[in-house]
Amino acid sequence: HYDYWSDKVRRSVLLDSKADILLYGNAERALAEIAHRVAAGATLDSLHDIRGTAFISPGLPEDWQEIDSSSLDQPGPVEPIPDPYSAETPAQAGDAPAQSGCATAAAKSVAETATSTVKVLRFQGRNARHPRSKSAVRLPAYEQVKNDPVLYAHASRVLHLETNPGNARVLLQQHGNRDVWLNPPPLPLSTAEMDQLFDLPFQRVPHPAYGDARIPAYEMIRFSVNIMRGCFGGCSFCSITEHEGRIIQSRSEDSIIREIEDIRDRTPGFTGVVSDLGGPTANMYRLACKSKEIEQSCRRLSCVYPGICKNLNTDHSPLIKLYRRARALPGIKKVLIASGLRYDLAVKDTAYVKELVTHHVGGYLKIAPEHTEQGPLSKMMKPGMGAYDDFKRLFDKYSREAGKEQYLIPYFIAAHPGTTDADMLNLALWLKQNGFRADQVQAFLPGPMALATAMYHSGRNPLKSIRRSSGEAVASAKGLRQRRLHKAFLRYHDPANWPLLRETLKNMGRADLIGNGKRHLIPTYQPAGTGSGGGEGKRYGRKHKGQVLLTQHTGLPPDATGRRLKRGKAALNKQRNP
Q1: Residue 393 clears pLDDT 90, i.e. is over it
Q2: pTM of model > 0.90
Q3: Domain finish residue from 317, 341, 360
Q4: How distant, in Å, are the alpha carbons of 13, 172, 243, 275, 569 from that of 323?
């Protein structure tokens, strides 16, 4: 995998950890199976058939087939080229005397047809059909991908195409004189298995070793409930599909309600507000493919990009029913939804949007357009802004009907692969036009296994077939100055960024956006004591009005006085009318 901090391709974690066997994903099923087998006396070399594991391969079994995908642009067979200038063909023994006219041509055609032979062409790289359960795909060796970014992109593409448990094959990669064997992903847990797991007696408090220390991550999740696993969104900057799978694994209503009651009765400091009912996404609960057969054979990287698959069930009624049952529990004052919302799915079920907006938004709802321009959005595998506009209309409509003042908080990514300076300028203009001012911004960081990381490292697009001499090139903001510039566009209102933006706008031929009017992006003046920094941090100069835009990790935004807004209707009313 590519390691951003060292700017190098690292070996498999299996080798660096010196482990005998490696489990990936949530791994409950693999862990239980290994524990039972070892308890029964099994040896390590007999555990090589367990899904969701990796180990050093002793060799390919005799009844297995290896599919070589370790190189690119494999040439086909070279056939001799006939001479187009040859006037005669060699005479064949026993030919009939030459004739003239149409009779000659007809006789020649019949003779050629009768004596012609059929030549079967076999294309290189095409193997006879073999059971996928006994097929292994050989990736380019570590020593190859370490020094060849194009092969790294190819290996990343092959890896992501082998993530569906229904059709994934074993992957092999050579490291020196050893092969790393990666088994297919684990089968998704059933609802009964999910319930059994979440019904275990978790204490819901930090380990006693932490004492009275404040743990921000615990504060964020201690009153939240995980209702599902997995995500079929396929965003290229995220690797959750490789960890939890693309198939949604949902808990039963009863199991979720039991956990809410457990939080109410046992968790210290609970005030009656459930901070989140969600998971990797807020609204994929019980959404699945309409056909198990199609689901098992599907090779798509996303069920919702470039459009929502016709085979995907988008009915949110089970989630609506769960929301209603949860908020009707005694002692529960409010159930909030804080997980990221797939608004392109939500607009397919307006009843869900109404339920969400009317009962489960604490003043602010975060969603993730990530960008406004089609170039970077296509590399992220995210929907266009049309879906955002549709959702915003529904959100505003149902907020008015409920008599509530509520706001959408969109968050964006700067410096994602495929993003140009012009793209960031257009995003900044959209933010200004819509009254958003980002308090903090998020810059893309390449993480292990993500497709966007392969784009960043290789400069190629692994969402499409990789060719060495052709294919789509993907530029990335790698230099410190350009990354700072992309973040500065998101914080166009910060005087610390104005000198850099002025210089850039002039170089882009957009000096018309420098001025002191409403149509300008940045002013001509520079407040005293500002302009030496840039990027993120405190605001300088005059106080700004308008909406505040935060990322998914920063919570609710501060009000005009700098106070953090509290959740809940009473708190909102108190802050609106101090």
Answers
A1: yes
A2: no
A3: 360
A4: 41, 45, 27, 13, 18
